[in-house]
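Problem 12. The chain below contains 444 residues. Write out its predicted structure in token notation.
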Amino acid sequence: MFIFLGMLLVPKVANAQVDFNKTPDDDLGIVEDKFQELFFEALKQKGVENYDRAVEALKKCIEIDKKPAVLYFELGKNYIQLKNFGAAEDALKKAVDKAPDNEWYLDELYGYYVSQNELNKALKTVKQLVQYHPDYKEDLATLYVKMEKYDDALEILDELDASFGVSAARDILRNRIYKATGRAKEQIENLESRVDKNPKNEANYLALIYRYSEQGETEKAFETAQELLKIKPNSQVVHLALYKFYLDKNNTEKAISSMKTVVRSNEIKPQAKIKVLSDFVNFVKLNPQYEKDLVEATALLDGTADAKTLTDLGLYYLNKGDKENALKNFQEALKLDSNNFSILKNVLMLHIDLKQYDVAKAKSELAIQKYPAQPLAYLVNGVALNALQQPKGAIETLESGLDWIVDDTNMEANFYGELAKAYELLNNTTKAKSFMDKANALKS
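Solution.
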């Protein structure tokens, strides 16, 4: 029981520790058996989430002794769980009034005000907390942003950066301010100052390159990237920017070299690599002489590409007439995006084109189950069954699929053409001719 009490109270009630084995000199101020029993009962009921019973026990404690701040602190937390917010605020304020120097009481009250979006009260409370730990200054800056007091927020962020160096979390907040206020020039000046003060910090250069590019100052961005490369010639991340700059300047060899550096890198995230490779796919579509480099880059990125990039690669190979490689990429894309019917459609049709009829039959059957309103799945299944000399099954599937065709005469003509083939296989020339005439009429 004493261990349980210690777990709950020691971290948050530094000024209210209780020793029931000696004459009291703590902020509970009483060690009568009844008080002990009620206080432990309150903690126990809170631990099992019986917050209303915990409140009852704490109120009885207060009837015995109103002085201990910890009683109101615990009462406030229980009221919060019961969503009795007015009573929670009153209790927590009493705890703070009785122990104004207790950080934990102030922190709980501050958290309550934030949860209720009472920003002015939260601001007043966090200003008291700042004296305990500089982390609260970041809370103060965040509150200023919420209240649209952007200059005050920037002042706090500048103080923190000067004292502790820049941090990613503060930069996110700083960038929110710049975006909200449209202070792009000030944002760039801040980054330029960072580069000047710490010329060996790669992150500052990269942030500056990004912001220059965002503002359309491409030359400055390119110059900054080159400066970074001089200072840090082994930098891999800088090639994310250099690749595009070189490409825009028609320096294709350097662009390809940067692209390969990116896809080989262990420092660059897969998403960024994929973006570069996807861009290079589009470049190679217009410049097919660099296909060898694309194949090499794709092999380097094997296992990390996303569905979109793999689909783009599939379409690239399909347009080239390389159906085997197109199918391979579409299949990999489908593994990553299994609910994408557009990718599945390409896979099914390529199995037919490559005369892989058994596979086409099996996959189209699964597609019909998953997408019963997609006529293409029925058509592929019918084509595969005809090719496998199973005309009766083809007829059954094709007739089912016809019901799902809406305003697509080309699709309908293909269905009639396959039905004609199925009846030919059954030596039913009359029906075969009837369906072929329907197909030809739609095509014409």
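Discussion. Confidence is low (pLDDT under 50) at residues 1-30. Students who got a different answer should revisit the alignment rule from Section 12.3.
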